[in-house]
Specification:
With 119 residues, this protein is an alpha+beta fold. The protein contains 2 helices and 7 strands, in the order E-E-H-E-E-H-E-E-E.
Length: 119
């Protein structure tokens, strides 16, 4: 007696993901199609898995931010324009020329003042 015949369907669909992409698993010797490419950092889940997160306090409120940010990167992450901002870190004013070289650490307490012009 020989091997039993393969009665599985030629293509088994696994449904569409949240982004609408359908992943199909080919059975019986076919190839599995490649997943769509997503550059690093384009998905918050990927970013958290790679770099992790930390909690800091900004203007009295706890905030979860990605690990590894400098003060300049933190301002960009918060979508603040650096030209009109003053930063106090752990009760000390942080000079603007140190923003690129100062890393944010878990537990840091910031007061960030954003100046608004007007007349």
């Amino acid at each position: 007696m020989g091997p039993l015949p393969d009665r599985r369907p030629a293509v088994a669909s696994r449904g569409a993901g949240a982004d609408g992409v359908t992943l199909e698993a080919f059975v019986g010797g076919g190839e599995i199609p490649p997943l769509p490419f997503r550059p690093p950092g384009s998905c918050s889940l990927f970013q958290r898995a790679v770099s992790g997160t930390m909690t800091i306090t900004i203007n009295g409120e706890p905030r979860e931010i990605p690990d590894g940010l400098t003060i300049s990167a933190l301002l960009t992450y918060l979508e603040l324009t650096a030209g009109r901002v003053a930063v106090e870190r752990n009760r000390e004013i942080l000079p603007r020329d140190q923003w690129d070289s100062t890393s944010v650490a878990a537990g840091d307490v910031f007061e960030i003042v954003h100046f608004v012009g007007g007349g």
